[in-house]
Specification:
This protein has 235 residues and is an alpha/beta fold. Helix 1 links the parallel strand 2 and strand 3. The longest helix has 13 residues. It is globular. The two termini are 31 Å apart.
Amino acid sequence: MKLPQINEVVVNSKIKELSILHLSDLHINKKTSTNSINQLVKLCNRSEADFIVITGDIIDCKVKFIKERLELLNKIEKKTYYISGNHDLFYGFKELKNILTNLICLDNNYEILQIKDKTIAIGGLSDRFSKFFRVKREEDKIVKILSRYENSIFLAHQPKDYIYALKSNSKLFLCGHTHGGQIYPFHYVVKLFQPFLNGLIYKKDTAIYVSKGIGNWGIDFRFKANNEISLLKLR
């Protein structure tokens, strides 16, 4: 897992003066080095973010093979929220949650934040593959709760879940999953299944950010889809 430089992105939003470090698609597996995870933790702790979000696919193999490496993520000092991705569900999301004791899981859940005299609701959904793992996705619940707040942030793994962010009038929707296509011209295949490939998009009052992610899937290679860690500055 080779870490990129932090990519600073200015986001026009009705939520003002807020900075979020957005990580996605770490795909930690047996080949991921302890050093790379330690470097990621240091990067998170040094960042100027108010809090951190991880939008799914933290793991890419059974938890029992990478337990010690995953435990290192608990050294992240800033408040960190995460939701499941399809790979997390496949390889063992329950086991992953049991290890990430210092991080907050927002699958079908929410939390209210008080930051710089602002009240912000942040909520998330389990991945769309949940039904195959007998996990109930509570879209209506999260939409209803976030709709009550003027300032809300919606987390999901796949871009196509942006429809729920719009329904809840959330001001920011964060996701990953696509890897930005990872290897060109695979970008065109991804576009057949997802409404957005990567980057910043605006729909109505909702700013959408699709991360290209940190890790890789399948082969450890990218082409015309560099990996990223983004510091989103809401202004």
